[in-house]
Each structure stands twice: as C-alpha cells, then as structure tokens.
Amino acid sequence: MTRVPPLACADLWRAVLAAAAGRCQCRGTCGKTHDKDGGRCPAVHGTYQAKQGRGWVRLLAAPADPAALLLPPHQAAALPNQALAAWCRHCHDATLRAVKAQHATAAPAVEPDALFD
C-alpha cells in the first residue's frame, strides 16, 4: 500500500507524516505504554496489522496535544504543522475517549434552573 494522501490538505498531511517518519507518534496517551516499541506506537502507515484485526494502517494528522483534540474542526484545521502529529486510528480514538472522559469529570456540575422557586 502506498502513501495515498487525503483529498484535502494533502501537503500538510505529507509534512506531518514526513516529520513522523511515517509512524504513529503516540507515546502512551492512548492508555498503552508501547513499552515493547521504545515507548512509541509501532503502527507504520501503509503496513498491515493482523493483530486484533486492525487491518491496514492509515495515519492521520491531528493535534499533537491531546487536549487540543477537543477543539472544534475549524480551530483544529488552523493549527500550524508543528502542533500536529501523526496518529493511527486506534491511538487517536483511545486518546480522544480518555480526554473526553477527563473533561467530563473535570466539568463543574450544572445546577438546575430555578424554574419552580
């Protein structure tokens, strides 16, 4: 499988993948330590991962800072190259779930309206 770029922002995607050497840049924010692979996810773009039925690895460019994964799409799209990282789908989704869960527990409880006072 070759490095087929996405339809939009192909140059940006190529720059992010080149900076990552075509490998997922997760260092454990997904919940896995990646100890066997030097602390970094072993997923390489264009390879096949038969393990756990993950199939072909297609890396995506997304904010490097896990908290920035919660940005609205128009703000995430405006981030500079240096603020982006290459993510495999598994690490991206697991990190996003963890950030959302952390954000939900950190949010203050909403008081009910005083509709019936």
Structure description:
With 117 residues, the chain is of the alpha+beta class. The chain has one domain. It has 3 helices and 4 strands. Strands 1-2 form a two-stranded antiparallel sheet. The longest helix has 18 residues, at 89-106. The protein is globular, with a radius of gyration of 17 Å. The model has no long low-confidence stretch (mean pLDDT 86).
Topology:
Blueprint: H1 10-19, E1 48-49, E2 55-56, E3 60-63, H2 73-76, E4 84-87, H3 89-106
Antiparallel strand pairs: 1-2, 3-4
What is the N-to-C succession of helices and strands? Answer: HEEEHEH
Strand order of the biggest β-sheet: 1-2
Summarize the biggest pleated sheet.
2 strands, antiparallel
The shape is: globular
**How many structural units, i.e. domains?**
1
Sequence stretches where pLDDT stays below 50 over 5 or more residues: none
Residues in helix, %: 25-40%
Count of extended strands: 4
Compute the number of helices.
3
Q: Rounded to an integer, what's the Rg over CA atoms?
A: 17 Å
Residues in β-strands, percent: 5-15%
Average per-residue pLDDT, rounded, comes to 86
Structural class: alpha+beta
Terminal-residue CA separation: 65 Å
How would you describe the oligomerization state of the chains in this entry? single chain
What is this entry, summarized?
By secondary structure, this protein is an alpha+beta fold.
Question: Which structural traits does this protein have?
Answer:
single chain; 117 residues; alpha+beta; two-stranded antiparallel ribbon; 3 helices
